[in-house]
Amino acid sequence: MGIEEYGGGQHAQSDVLVVTTNDVPGFHVERVIGEVFGLTVRSRHLGSQIGAGLKSMIGGELRGLTKTLVETRNQAMERLVEQARSRGANAVLMFRFDVTEAADVGTEVCAYGTAVVLAPLS
């Protein structure tokens, strides 16, 4: 089975496998390329801030903010995959997200992991 056929945790339509684990069953790390990351910062929309403020008083999910965060995480992950691919990797191990507030104007999302070249076990 080739890495492109593995599919476990693989980013949609990508030739780069992305997993949160340290290894992939049936494969060995042939070469460690190093740390890769995808970073994006999103500003908050004034309307969503007002809506979120009102919603927080009565409770419930902040759907607009949830949608924005999902889109932001996806963009950060796409950038991570692009960087791994451009450095010759076919996988990213130990994938993680880090989310922080950026100077009270938005949210910074960083997707990071270790880019490697995986090969099937003999």
UniProtKB/TrEMBL annotation:
Gene3D superfamilies in UniProt: Hypothetical protein apc22750. Chain B (3.30.110.70)
Pfam families in UniProt: YbjQ_1 (PF01906)
Database matches in SUPFAM superfamilies: YbjQ-like
Family designation: Belongs to the UPF0145 family.
Stated name of the protein: UPF0145 protein SU9_019095
